[in-house]
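ARCHIVE RECORD
Type: protein–small molecule complex
Small molecule: BIS(adenosine)-5'-pentaphosphate
Source of inputs: curated submission
Record status: active
Notes field left blank by submitter.
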Amino acid sequence: MRIILLGAPGSGKGTQARLIQDHFGIPQISTGDIFRKAIADGTPLGAEVEKYVSGGALVPDSLTIRLVRERLSHEDVRRGFVLDGFPRTIPQAKGIEEILAELGWELDAVVNIRVSEEVLVSRLALRRTCPACGMMYHMENRPPVSEGECDECKTALEVRADDSEDTVRKRLGVYLSQTTPLVEYFERTSRLVNIDGAGRVEEIFDNIRLELEERARGPGTSIDDKA
Ligand code: AP5
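STRUCTURE (tokenized, with ligand):
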């Protein structure tokens, strides 16, 4: 399956992308995670993108599209992928369509996770992430078993550099102006699936899973056929 996850900062894209990855056995490709890792590792890419990411601005389209094109050339995406946080602009949406056309692949679904602004701000203020394995927690809704420590790999949890109140507001503004037009853009392809992102993580995932299974079945096909 080839899936795009759309949604505002804090809507739960990363949380749901991980569940989709585990359930459908397809890799999560998060442009945000790739940029943060490059920054943490001190690579040339990290140096180039740090000012955008830490300030809550978007990394330029040409660089981001190039990065995704390269990632989609890897062997592990042959059975599908879930793109988390890409595309985020109309040029990026055109970029992914072009890449897929070159590869002879089609998108199965564009999942748009919808959450109110009030909930988004509270989720990001209380988010903690594991810098080692990327696991995400929420201090009220999904706290780690041991305070301040990742359940999976026991690394000390961190507050993401771009989760300060000012930067969150900037990211939300960027989302509204540059990313929301993608909803209309993908509506025309009849691949768009709107999902209410306000419930429990597991309930939201069940709704996404049912929609994806329904689409993958299509007339006379199975999920395995389309994976
Ligand atoms: P990115 O990493 O993609 O960040 P984002 O889009 O701002 O989204 P977040 O990761 O903040 O939130 P999320 O929707 O994944 O929610 P999460 O699951 O974590 O991008 C970061 C930066 O990189 C950008 O600002 C930009 O600079 C750059 N960048 C990335 N992609 C780019 C692109 N394509 N083009 C240009 N620049 C790009 O959940 C949030 C919190 O809520 C967590 O604590 C979680 O535990 C909790 N939570 C999740 N679901 C629920 C639920 N149902 N109930 C209660 N709590 C929940």
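CURATOR ANNOTATION: Residues 58 and 158 are 22 Å apart (CA to CA).
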